[in-house]
Design a protein that fits this description.
The complex is a heterodimer of chains A (678) and B (335). Chain A contains 17 helices and 34 strands. Chain A has 678 residues and is an alpha/beta fold. Chain A has a five-stranded parallel sheet with strand order 10-7-6-18-29, covered by helices on one side. Chain A has a five-stranded parallel sheet with strand order 20-27-21-22-23. In chain A, strands 2-1-3-4 form a four-stranded parallel sheet, with helices on both faces. In chain A, strand 8 (197-198) and strand 9 (203-204) form a beta hairpin. In chain A, helix 5 packs antiparallel against helix 17, helix 6 crosses helix 7 and helix 11 (368-375) runs parallel beside helix 12 (418-433). Chain A is globular and about 90 Å long. With 335 residues, chain B is of the alpha/beta class. Chain B has three domains: 13-105 and 159-191, NADH:ubiquinone oxidoreductase-like, 20kDa subunit (Rossmann fold, 3-Layer(aba) Sandwich); 118-154, no CATH class; 211-328, no CATH class. Chain B has a five-stranded parallel sheet. In chain B, strands 4-8 form a two-stranded antiparallel sheet. The radius of gyration of chain B is 22 Å and the shape is globular. Classes of the chains: A alpha/beta (678), B alpha/beta (335). Chains A and B meet through helix 16 of A and helix 9 and helix 11 of B.
Chain lengths: 678, 335
């Protein structure tokens, strides 16, 4: 277990380059001392040059490394600077320019792991020496590696036909590349198609969305599968094989003209829980709304009289083109794509969970989505804001913010859109009913362009704002004037008192939550969710639409709550990333990979279910496991799990890790008396 | 084999020694049956205390390197063990760490969880011991005739290669007799110039993969909902992987060579053949492997599942504690 290498003559010529990072590192670490120490004390390990520099990542710093490689004949480079996440690529590229294989460069972090987390300069300096020593030992076992080049299939799969998916699909298709768009519902359009107005400009959602939907529907480069779901994803970046289940519509798309006679004639009315949020009806054969794309309806089998009772067939009788096909079966379609954009959106938080607000129990408590349908001119009330009875116009309306958001009982996060949405609702109530409107908010969040101006406008319109978390919505009247009303019990934190405000209607601005099957979808595509269930981007600031899995991109609310402009921007951003990939024609994959020694693998199958990227294949015939190098992202999960030690990971071999530990222990920084930290 | 050892009757010399061990390894050697006659035909037994009388001073008197083959079993627990290990290393051309104790510490190595005092308390001061005067062994004792000594008890048990360089390792508790016979055959062939010795440091008398490789049980993707002790199961599926039935079988990390005897008899592998090639720390490997296939994301449920392994050290380090990366627990290091 000990490294015999410790006793051998150094074989490599190592350069140690210590970065000040301005005062980021130098403020807490004596970088000159670290470089001096490495040059003297690690000479026997092969260090031939050790220097410090103000900004190693600057072009001058990089040139310094390149010059050392060429003039000193360095065969290994250790850079002590920031986290590899930040500048590993920078320094590897510098080495590459100087003719050294980039994987023979080791970046050790003395910023994130030392200067930023310590307060004792002497101890931090000693720790930096240890970290550098560990890096030197480790790099001795590094091997030159070549990236894997894989070709990129020019087609792209976009999953989800909401505004983010539509934008991504159009951008890619307009650039001349094929797109396959899969949507679970009968029509594309997503949540946006359910809205009436969009904040802050109050454009009509349909007016700006439907042209885009039509473009998608008629685009020569877009193949659309609605009423369909992705069943299976195999392969890897550039070469995904995707199996799509096209659910039976019972309508022949070749023959259907979208005349909607079938919908008119169908005798079965069904409450529309999806598009109309339970407020309106549709038929058993339906398109969710008249502008649906595609125009073909679907038959809702569990609600269809023919399927349930064997008689009816009204749709078939009246269809002028004979497009109704009760025998139609689900189809499985396999497509090849190079990249995938996931834009599967969000679900609305179920406000029944906040029992004290009475949704589901008190008739005139509405969800935000129900209210959107009430205000929509094409909705169940033709845009009239009325109570649950369908006729009474409310005289007072209370809008409650943060229902299920910013609440440790449900979701800690802010759902981003609710403040602006609630302001929009307040405006619409004013405009259409003249009712008194209360907004119950915790904090008003109106960041972004022209949002706060909209808030000012709604303030001027006379909406009343009560700052405080609503305790309860009740119909139990206690005071005169409360009878027959909903009473909102709230602590007005600005007035510093409890208030009971009687209203006719309550609207709950419910949180955005991840799709209920988000975790399964993430697993299917080999990406990760955070604790809430939002998909995780590669970098929260600098790489917001890529994921840790090469070739899988995310856009819109699947990544976290956001408004329409941000969703569109992400859709376009994902498209730009995909187009960049396609234009390159091939992609170089990091050669950091796990591999299985087939002689050592006994086929115990412990690793088989662990790979987050589905890269592990088990060969039943030979009883051995193999790793698909193109799928593997080098995460190391299987390497750690393999009980036989048959799986090893490049760049993280046992030899490298043990050598690094030995190197670390060369500096006994625990016993520095002046710097002992309890 | 380049050097023939000087010997009175021309035959090369053979030695076998036991240090801290149970004696099972010796039995296993005798258990090779008539093959033992081949040993006699080809070797002169120079030193084998369990089989024949011998004195250390006789060994000391032999020229260095005069014993061709020494099978050393047992761990290094006291000063006598260490002294003889060093002596035999000097006198032997080929020193084999024979059996689990010499290779990796085995059951005696589990004493590395306790301090020397705790061990002596257990041996000399528990209710089962008739020791009214509370007598404890002492390294030195003054007698009227002069001071006498017994071997010094060390704080931890060490494996043979933690004390002297070892040429080969032969795992097993004890090594299977057919494997011993095969190794003896090999050495005899080498003597006759018919075969080559494996490279120094190799594991001999065992396979290169794991017990699973020899186990005929059917294996699937593993999802473990609970760990159970074998005696608590009413029915054991005779064909399905034991681990998949929740029986904590160490087969996946254990070197092959035994022929998967235990799993075939519906008993879990306890790991006596030691770590497979490529396994640096046997227990850590198994902990990681078992943890990886626990089928739950709920911390409380995971705790509950882990309660099914009441003695993790016994489960994962039964044979390997002294040879593991940590070697011993803190009380042992502190004496």
């Amino acid at each position: 277990m000990t490294n015999n290498a410790m006793n051998q003559e150094p074989k490599e010529r190592i350069g140690v380059h210590v970065c000040h990072c301005g005062s980021n590192i130098a403020g807490m670490v004596d970088v000159e001392e670290v470089a001096r120490w490495a040059g003297e004390q690690l000479k026997d390990r092969g260090v031939v040059i050790a220097r410090d520099y103000k900004f190693m990542c600057s072009s001058l710093g990089q040139e310094l490394i390149e010059k050392d490689i060429q003039e000193e004949g360095l065969t290994r480079v250790v850079v002590a600077a920031c986290s590899p996440h930040l500048h590993e690529n920078t320094f590897r590229t510098a080495c590459s320019r100087a003719g050294l294989n980039p994987y023979l460069c080791e970046l050790v972090s003395i910023r994130e792991q030392v200067s930023w987390v310590h307060t004792d300069r002497a101890a931090a300096t000693e720790k930096s020496k240890a970290v550098v020593s560990g890096g030197v030992e480790r790099v001795l076992y590094s091997e030159p590696l070549e990236p894997l080049h894989v070709p990129i299939h020019p087609a792209t799969l976009v999953v989800g036909g909401g505004i983010a998916g539509i934008q991504a699909a159009l951008e890619i298709a307009d650039a001349g590349f094929p797109v396959i768009l899969v949507e679970r519902e009968p029509s594309i359009g997503g949540h946006m198609s359910q809205f009436d107005k969009t904040f802050p400009t109050l454009d009509c959602a349909a007016c700006i969305l439907t042209p885009k939907m039509v473009s998608v529907g008629g685009h020569p480069n877009i193949q659309m599968f609605t009423w369909s779901e992705v069943e299976k994803v195999d392969g890897y970046v550039g070469n995904f094989t995707v199996t799509i289940r096209k659910k039976a519509r019972f309508v022949n798309e070749e023959l259907c003209t979208g005349c909607a006679i079938c919908q008119e004639k169908c005798p079965k009315k069904v409450i529309d829980e999806v598009y109309e949020a339970g407020l309106g009806y549709r038929k058993a054969i339906y398109t969710p709304f008249p502008q649906a794309v595609p125009k073909y309806p679907v038959i809702d089998k569990p609600n269809c009289t023919y399927f349930q009772k064997g008689t009816c067939k009204a749709c078939q009788k009246f269809c002028p083109t004979g497009a109704i096909d009760f025998e139609q079966q689900d189809e499985w379609i396999t497509v090849q794509v190079g990249n995938i954009v996931l834009a599967t959106g969000y679900d609305l938080f179920d406000p029944r969970k906040v029992t004290q607000y009475g949704y589901g129990r008190l008739a005139n408590v509405f969800t935000s989505l129900e209210f959107e349908r009430l205000t929509n001119a094409a909705g169940p009330t033709n845009g009239n804001i009325v109570l649950r009875d369908g006729v009474t116009v409310p005289k007072t309306v209370g809008i409650i913010h943060c229902v299920g958001s910013r609440d440790r009982n449900f979701n800690n996060y802010c759902s981003v859109i609710c403040c602006m949405q609630s302001l929009k609702f307040a405006h619409l109530v004013h405009e259409r009913t003249g009712a008194t409107v209360y907004n119950f908010y915790i904090d008003m969040r109106t960041a972004y362009k022209e949002y706060d101006e909209f808030y000012q406008r709604v303030l001027e319109e006379g909406t009343l704002f009560v700052r405080g978390k609503v305790a309860e919505v009740t119909d139990a009247a206690r005071l005169p004037g409360e009878e027959g009303k909903l009473i909102v019990q709230v602590e007005d934190t600005l007035a510093g008192k409890q208030r009971r405000i009687p209203v006719d209607m309550v609207v709950l601005s419910a949180a955005m939550v991840p799709r209920k099957d988000a975790k399964e979808v993430a697993h299917k595509f080999g990406i990760s969710c955070n604790a809430n269930g939002w998909f995780i981007e590669k970098h929260p600031k600098l790489d917001p639409v890529a994921t840790m899995t090469e070739g899988i991109f995310i856009a819109g609310c699947v990544q976290g709550p956001k408004d329409i402009p941000s969703s569109v921007a992400q859709g376009a951003a994902a498209a730009a990333r995909v187009l960049g990939r396609i234009q390159q024609g091939e992609i170089a994959l990091e050669p950091v990979r796990a591999s299985v020694d087939q002689d050592k693998c006994s086929g115990c199958r412990i690793c088989n279910n662990l790979c987050p990227f589905n890269a592990i294949i088990f060969h039943e015939d030979r009883m051995v496991t193999e790793i698909n190098a193109a799928l593997c992202q080098g995460c190391g999960t299987c390497v750690a799990a393999c009980p036989a030690g048959a799986i090893s990971g490049t760049v993280f071999s046992n030899e490298q890790i043990f050598a690094q530990i030995e190197g670390l222990m060369r500096v006994n920084f625990f016993t520095e008396p002046q710097s002992a930290v309890a | 084999m380049t050097t023939q050892s000087p010997s009175t009757n021309g035959k090369p010399k053979f030695a076998m020694y036991w240090a801290a061990s149970c004696g099972g390894c010796e039995i296993a050697v005798l258990n090779i049956g008539e093959k033992i006659l081949d040993v006699d035909a080809n070797f002169e037994v120079a030193f084998w205390p369990v089989a024949m009388d011998a004195k250390y001073k006789d060994v000391e008197a032999m020229p260095d390197g005069s014993i061709l083959l020494t099978l050393f079993n047992g761990g290094i627990r006291n000063s006598e063990n260490e002294e003889i290990a060093k002596l035999l290393r000097r006198k032997s051309q080929i020193l084999v760490a024979f059996g689990s104790c010499a290779s990796e510490g085995c059951i005696p190595g589990l004493a590395n969880l306790s301090s020397s005092n705790q061990i002596l308390d257990t041996v000399y001061s528990t209710v089962s011991t008739d020791n009214p005067q509370g007598i404890r062994p002492q390294h030195k004792y003054a007698m009227p005739e002069g001071e006498i000594q017994i071997p010094k008890f060390y704080p931890v048990l060490r494996t043979l290669d933690q004390v002297v360089p070892v040429d080969y390792y032969m795992p097993g508790c004890p090594p299977e007799s057919h494997q011993i016979a095969a190794v003896i055959d090999l050495v005899i062939k080498v003597l006759h110039g018919e075969a080559q010795l494996p490279p120094k440091g190799a594991v001999i008398g065992a396979g290169g993969s794991t017990v699973c490789d020899d186990c005929p049980r059917k294996r699937n993707v593993k999802l473990i909902k609970k760990f159970v002790r074998i005696q608590d199961l009413e029915h054991i599926d005779p064909e399905l992987c034991l681990l998949e039935q929740g029986i904590p079988c160490n087969g996946p990390a254990t070197r092959s060579g035994c022929g998967a005897l235990c799993p075939q008899a519906s008993a879990q592998c306890i790991g006596c053949y030691g770590p497979a090639d490529g396994v640096v720390d046997y227990g850590a490997r198994l902990v990681a492997a078992f943890a990886s296939v626990i089928d739950s994301n709920d911390p409380e449920e995971i705790e509950h599942i882990l309660d099914g392994i009441p003695d993790p050290t016994g489960q994962f380090y039964r044979f390997n504690l002294a040879g593991s990366l940590l070697r011993a627990a803190r009380p042992a290091w502190e004496g």
